[in-house]
Amino acid sequence: MADTKPAASRPGDEQQSPSSDPATNSSAPEQSLVVRSQTQNAGFFSRFRYHLFAAGFAFLLSPFAFLWPGQSPIDPKNYAERTERVLKTTPLIDGHNDLPWQLRIELHNRIYDGRVDFTKRLLGHTDIQRMRTGMVGGQFWSVYVDCDTHQQHFEDPSWIVRDTLEQIDVTRRFIDEHPQHLQYCDTAACARKAFKSGRISSMIGIEGGHQVGGSIASIRQMYNLGARYITLTHNCDNSFATSASTVAAGGPDGGLFKLGYEAIREMNRLGMIVDLSHVSHQTMRDVLSVARAPVIFSHSGAHSVEPHLRNVPDDVLRTVKKNGGIVMAVFVNRFLKMKDPDQATIHDVVDHIFHIAEVCGWECIGVGSDFSGTPYVPIGLEDVSKFPDLVQLLMERGATDEQVRLFVGENILRVWSNIEQRARELQAAGEKPVEEEYEGRQWQKGMKDSPWMLRGSRQKAIDAGAADRPYMFNVDNKGKHNPAVKNV
To answer: How far apart, in whole angstroms, are the C-alpha atoms of residue 238 and residue 251?
Structure first.
């Protein structure tokens, strides 16, 4: 229907009356007839309906378009492109790599003599070139030292603590030697910042409580030196707990020992991450029953998938979920396929990952390769360059991009942040450092004439067999050093 309301002429209007003869219309008022569409002001939808219909039709014709907010569509079956997009925006953080051990046994910790260029392709599992190819965003470097087979008891003298200090030293020096690629980090926030700057965050983990000499004070010092997790045991018992290897060899599963409970208390207070890979199943349960912060398994699998004692049982997985911790999936052949380890493949790793996610949730699964530590790795995961292949296979098996983001890095960063926050809370509440020691600890006896602070101390020292006098430096009665005088 036309709108017949007269309207005043506007600039540029050229309408005239039906008759063009000015003589016959000189006395008639000038009016214009303006015709408008009825739908001219019908609203946004009417004006853009054809655009909306076209967009909707195009979407229906493209049911395979995978959309990420603010980015171009990706075919959900283009796993390589999806993987690249995820790993460019979320740091892939591996929970366990033993390259520092290779520095020790191959180079004797000498990294400046030019024998090795870590930015070029090397043998073995790890170098910076392949880390870049594998889109690694962060790495926990293990400062592992063997259990001392000469020790009959964990209180026997050993060089393990010295060797651990040397491993921390060489790891820090290795990181500092490659500032364009690596950045040492001791907080979760630093790991995120390093990733944004294009560098691989590099953290330190100690693989075994034996490496702190059965001393809670040593735990504090290792934290001060930059270590951020301690695996409670390696392949030997220590003053804290029972190892999985002890149970595998037919020994009893004594779980967490008395001093171990105190060690967990202090690690939670410090913000030192408690790592339960390598411990016995009862130790896992005991720790989770008292932990006041999340725990991690830096490199372990699912026991229900493969019943190796190094893997995590389902009941423990369910407790880890309640604890807010994380299990970082391991790549070690014999943990994946006990009967035929040589036949282990990348698909077996994915089986473990999906089982852990099914029982514990995608919020408690991560990456824990054990590259450069284990001599045998699965087919398809031969070195650090292969991480994207693992991510692609997860996607092919049905993992969403968000689940993959949790798996590769968001989970461990969240868990670590929560551990840091819990430590701040405990310290703010005034909790003091733990001072407990191993019950069988032997202390120095002192001298009977030491400047004792308390009454009774001198007599206790005498009763304990304290020395009569200090070291005399072989001084004879003439006031000269004389090796023949045995008055020490």
So the answer is: 14
| Distance, CA of 20 to CA of 4 (rounded, Å) | 20
Return d(Cα 302, Cα 319) in angstroms, integer: 14
Q: What angle do CA 190, 192, 197 make, to 5 degrees?
A: 90
Give the pairing of strands 136-142 and 273-275.
unpaired
Burial of 437: CB neighbours in 10 Å, binned 0-12, 13-18, 19+? middle
352 is catalytic: no
Catalytic residue among 210, 234, 281, 303: 234
Residue type, 212: V
- Distances, alpha carbon 308 to alpha carbons 268, 276, 312, in Å: 28, 15, 9
The span from the CA of 375 to the CA of 361, in Å, is 30
CA-wise closest residue to 257 among 83, 474, 440, 7: 440
43: CB partners within 8 A, 6+ apart: none
Cβ atoms within 10 A of the Cβ of 378, count? 24
The reply to whether 234 belongs to the active site is yes
Length of the chain: 488
Residues forming a β-bridge with 236: 234
Phi, psi of 327 (to 5 degrees): -115, 120
Q: What is the pTM of this model?
A: 0.83
User: Rounded to whole angstroms, how far apart are CA atoms 403 and 66?
Assistant: 15
Nearest Cα neighbor of 140 from 333, 344, 302, 366 is 366
pLDDT in tens, 289-335: 999 999 999 999 999 999 999 999 999 999 999 999 999 999 999 99
CA distance 147 to 164: 11
State pLDDT tens for residues 385-431: 999 999 999 999 999 999 999 999 999 999 999 999 999 999 999 99
Span 337-351, mean pLDDT?
Answer: 97
- Candidate list 125, 299, 308, 355, residue with the active-site label: 299
Q: Is 174 in contact with 103 (CB distance < 8 Å)?
A: yes
Question: Which of 94, 98, 351, 420 is labelled catalytic?
Answer: 98
SS3 223: helix
SS3 345: strand
How far is residue 41's CA from residue 3's CA, in Å, rounded to a whole number?
A: 13
The answer to whether the CB of 438 falls within 8 A of the CB of 155 is yes
Residue 80: strand pairing partners:
none
Q: Give CA–CA dist 197/183, Å, rounded.
A: 10
CA distance 144 to 229: 12
Of the candidates 370, 401, 410, 420, the residue annotated as catalytic is 370
Give the helix ranges, DSSP H, for 7-147. 44-60, 79-89, 99-107, 128-133
